[in-house]
Design goal:
282 residues, Arc Repressor Mutant, subunit A, Rna Polymerase Sigma Factor, Chain: A, mainly alpha, three-stranded antiparallel sheet
């Protein structure tokens, strides 16, 4: 039974589920259990692709079903976008179909290597087009043309086209091409996973700066500098070395050519002045 369509289908329910039990992964998307899908070796995939490209289209459905796990593995990366997982899976399958149609068996490249960016690109386009952040119609049309030409270029040359090459192919100004490419990038969620070692996940939120803490640190540094400026040169030198450089009184005594008792007395007097200064400000 086919579970894909060559159009974006919006579901009104949120019943798409991903179930994982250890290494035995059971997934149910659109009523399909992918744990029951066929598995093909790399050699078998290439042989089937040759048959499909040779006109034996009856093998296409089987090939698609054998690669749905690949689609699912990529779909899970977009699981925190607030979109229905079924819809994203459907879009991923459309990307898979496009990859099959455009794949060149003459290029000595694994199918999955070619298919992954195609599938991800299709999903990102879907998320972009359904995003709350809207781009102009002209820019969206240009981005679609660029995407199509980029896929053709990669299929032919097995590498990404440069901006200059896209400018020649598309015939649009370089600045517009850059804006169109930027518009293809889907907005990121602060809860997107940036690292997962199989245990705890690290979200984008975890790597964002806390501007409040940064400003508080800056205020504290300014306050300390203002207080230290009230000390004489020797007092400041001893306080800085003792409390910011972890020097001992013995080490400082040797550096200054005085006794440890003198260093201790200077340090105590400096600390007393600092306390008095802070007390007056409070």
């Amino acid at each position: 039974m086919r579970i894909y369509k060559k159009s974006y289908v919006k579901n009104n329910n949120n019943k798409g589920e991903i179930h994982m039990n250890g290494t035995n992964v059971k997934v149910e998307v659109q009523g399909l259990d992918t744990s029951k899908l066929p598995k093909l070796s790399q050699k078998e995939q290439m042989e089937m692709l040759k048959k499909i490209k040779g006109g034996q289209k009856q093998y296409k459905d089987e090939f698609i079903n054998a690669n749905l796990r690949l689609v699912l593995s990529l779909v899970k990366k977009f699981n925190n976008r607030g979109e229905n997982i079924n819809d994203i899976f459907q879009v991923g399958v459309i990307g898979l179909i496009k990859a099959i149609d455009n794949f060149d068996i003459a290029q000595e490249v694994q199918f999955s290597t070619y298919a992954v960016p195609m599938i991800i690109g299709e999903i990102k386009r879907y998320l972009r087009d359904n995003s709350a952040f809207r781009v102009t119609r002209s820019l969206r049309d240009l981005s679609y043309i660029i995407s199509q030409e980029r896929e053709k270029y990669i299929a032919k040359h097995n590498e990404e086209p440069t901006i200059d090459e896209l400018e020649k192919i598309v015939g649009a100004p370089k600045e517009q091409i850059i804006l169109a490419i930027d518009s293809m990038v889907a907005p990121m969620s602060i809860y997107d996973t940036v690292y997962n070692d199989g245990g705890d996940q690290i979200f984008l939120l975890d790597q964002l700066k806390n501007e409040k803490e940064d400003s508080e640190d800056l205020i504290n540094k300014i306050s300390i500098e203002q207080i230290l400026d009230k000390l004489n040169d020797k007092e400041r030198y001893i306080i800085e070395k003792r409390y910011f450089k972890d020097k001992t009184q013995v080490e400082l005594a040797e550096e200054l050519g005085v006794s440890q008792a003198q260093v201790s007395r200077i340090e105590k007097n400096a600390l007393l002045r600092i306390r008095n200064k802070i007390g007056k400000e409070l």
